[in-house]
Specification:
heterodimer; A: 427 residues; alpha/beta; Heat Shock Protein 90; two-stranded parallel sheet; 7 strands; 61% helix; 10% strand; elongated; B: 222 residues; Rossmann fold; Arc Repressor Mutant, subunit A; five-stranded parallel β-sheet; 10 helices; globular
């Protein structure tokens, strides 16, 4: 029944967008803040959204402050909830907001310092300086916070700017503290004493707030560092223990069970996995030919009764995606499938060429005996190498035991042709 | 092959020692066992065996940092028993383990996963004065002596590079060839192959190429 309903819904679905309502609806204009803005992008974003001139929006914000600061609240609300316009680049602000806050703070604090220092403060009532001083302190802290949280991510400003702002804010707050500590000395009334003590304390708290984010970040970094170190120590302890116990036991199992038995193969695969995990820290991240063939060998050991020994010599620039790697994997798979037992893989990268040798000790076979329509070895190993500009051969191993596949890839081609694979010119 | 070889087995795991003892063939007589550096030195000097099967990672009270317990045993015991050969047994074939113990004086190494027959063969080879090279060790030697970038020794007494012939032998061993197969491939006698391998082992022990230490530390051979 559900199915039928779904089908019905599907049948009617195409009709909906074609309806008149959908066609006449104006394209939705989302309220976003432009990334290249003056201070926060609220006014510009809103102006764009409403299709009004920007100055009208700005004036609206200022004027509506008459109603108990409604404009400011609306501004902050929009600022908090409006997303940036979609894009990748970091927002950049043309207005030096942090400096403006410092200037505003100075505007409030400087007169207070002057009156208090000149002795006019001796007669000035507490109410006349308490408000402006607190406003100045708040603005100084805001400047520090703005520099820390907003400006820092901007390439044009950055950490140096942050430091300068912070010093400016600190100077403002420190002078305020000192001024009011001095006021405490000649205070004549209890109200004045309490007021001065409160302001001096508030300014000190302000300084603390300016530096708090940095201190927190540093503390977090420190504890992260410690956690990491402890984890590292624990890890190496575990590694040492496992090395002494589990790896030895796995080796013993392999030793007792015979090299190609099921149990030995499982033990060997397990040992390899454990070793990879133990030493995961310094394994190269990008896969080159050597790593790739080693991994492939490990995978073969799980699927076939075979042990694959991969030896890598020289600096391997060859990538794992190349034709050489594909041919080598094919040869290894062949050896695992038809010969089994011990398979030796040797990769050497010299200045002239990258060479791969895959040797098994199985019954062996000669190319001539393989019918031409059997694509396996002829096509996927030798043909592939020849097309990619290298060469390959399949021959009986030394002393007529087993088979050895030899692959060779000249070095000047190894850089590009080996990597691209399919796009190599044929012939 | 018929002559009996007297060996001392040194490993800190008793289960491994007994397993190995059971697996070694009849021509090998185990004349002593030890489980740490101190007891190993004692057992080796007491029994003065032909070959010591020596675990690379061996606990001991006074093993200096940066070296393995196995290497320490060789350093302490080799002078008192000059006729004894050391064959390292390693759970891993990590270059720094293996090269460290070989440079201390071991005549070769074999991984612990090897079968009893393989270990027996290696013991006989070492007792007969040969070096035991695995494909991985051969690969390491080729890398460490700069064979891949075309460095070749000009004089036969040069310690820091391999001669062209030594490189050929090492390449074939790295490709999984047995000494006999190397000999037939290069049209030389097995004895000559063994001579080359011993010469390479000597270079590995005496050379001061910085790659030997730096390479081993920078890259962990799996």
């Amino acid at each position: 029944m559900d199915e039928r309903t779904a089908e019905a819904a599907e049948a009617t679905a195409p009709a909906v967008p074609a309806g008149p309502a959908a066609a006449s609806a104006p394209p939705e204009r989302k309220l976003t803040r432009p990334r290249d803005c003056v201070a926060t992008g609220v006014s510009a974003g809103l102006a764009e959204h409403l299709a009004w001139p920007v100055w009208v929006v700005r004036a609206g914000f200022v004027v509506s402050n008459i109603a108990a600061g409604a404009g400011l609240m609306l501004y902050v609300w929009l600022w908090a909830l409006t997303p940036w316009s979609p894009g990748e680049e970091r927002p950049s602000r043309s207005a030096p907001v942090a400096w403006m806050l410092v200037a505003a703070s100075t505007f409030f604090l400087a007169p207070v310092w002057l009156t208090q220092a000149s002795g006019a403060g001796y007669v000035a009532p507490v109410a006349s300086w308490l408000g402006p001083t607190l406003a100045g302190i708040g603005l100084a802290v805001a400047a520090g916070a703005w520099a820390t949280f907003v400006d820092r991510s901007e390439t044009a400003r950055g950490p140096r700017h942050e430091l300068v702002i912070r010093i400016a804010a600190t100077v403002l707050l420190a002078v305020t503290t000192l001024t009011f500590v001095a006021v405490l000395g000649w205070s004549t009334s209890t109200a004045k004493t309490y007021g001065a003590a409160f302001i001096a304390f508030a300014a000190l708290v302000g300084i603390a707030l300016v530096y708090l984010p940095t201190l927190l970040a540093q503390w977090r970094e420190l504890s992260d560092e410690r956690t990491k170190r402890i984890r590292e120590e624990q890890r190496s302890e575990i590694a040492a223990h496992l090395h002494d116990s589990v790896l030895q036991t796995l080796a013993l199992i392999q030793n007792r069970a015979g090299a190609t038995s099921e149990v030995a193969r499982i033990a060997r695969a397990q040992e390899r996995e454990l070793r990879d995990w133990l030493f995961a820290g310094d394994a190269p991240v990008d896969s080159d030919l050597g790593t790739d063939l080693r991994d492939f060998g490990a995978a073969l050991e799980i699927d076939y009764a075979v042990t694959v020994d991969v030896v890598v010599v020289g600096e391997i620039r060859e990538r794992a995606s190349g034709e050489l790697a594909a041919a080598a994997r094919e040869a290894m798979l062949n050896a695992a499938r038809h010969a089994g037992g011990e398979v030796s893989v040797y990769v050497e990268s010299s200045r002239e060429a990258v060479e791969v040798f895959v040797r098994d000790r199985g019954p062996g076979f000669s190319l001539a005996e393989v019918p031409g329509d059997r694509l396996g070895v002829r096509e996927s190993i030798i043909g592939r190498m020849r097309r990619a500009g290298g060469s390959g051969s399949v021959a009986p191993g030394a002393g007529g035991v087993g088979t050895e596949v030899r692959l060779r890839f000249p070095a000047e081609r190894a850089g590009n042709a080996g990597g691209i694979g399919g796009e190599v010119p044929r012939g | 092959m018929a002559e009996r070889v007297r060996v001392v087995v040194v490993d800190d795991h008793s289960i491994f020692r007994s397993g190995l003892k059971a697996d070694l063939d009849d021509t090998i007589e185990v004349v002593g066992e030890a489980h740490d550096v101190e007891s190993a030195v004692r057992a080796v000097t007491d029994a003065s065996p032909d070959v010591v099967l020596l675990d690379v990672h061996l606990p001991g009270a006074a093993v200096p940092a940066g070296t393995s317990g196995g290497a320490e045993v060789i350093r302490r015991a080799a002078n008192t028993v000059p006729g004894t050969k050391f064959l390292a047994l390693s759970v891993s074939d990590k270059a720094e383990d293996v090269v460290g113990v070989i440079r201390a004086g071991a005549r070769g190494y074999i991984t612990k996963g090897s079968s009893g027959a393989d270990v027996s063969r290696a013991v006989h080879a070492v007792a007969g004065g040969d070096a035991v090279f695995s494909p991985k060790l051969a690969g390491f030697v080729l890398d460490a002596f700069g064979a891949a970038v075309g460095e070749t020794a000009q004089a036969s007494d040069e310690l820091d590079r391999l001669s062209a012939r030594e490189q050929e032998v090492m390449r074939l061993i790295a490709r999984g060839y047995a000494y006999k197969e190397v000999a037939s491939e290069l049209f030389i006698s097995t004895k000559t192959v063994e001579t080359h391998v011993s010469a390479v082992l000597r270079k590995l022990q005496l050379s001061s190429r910085h790659e030997l230490t730096a390479w081993a530390n920078a890259r962990r051979l799996l």
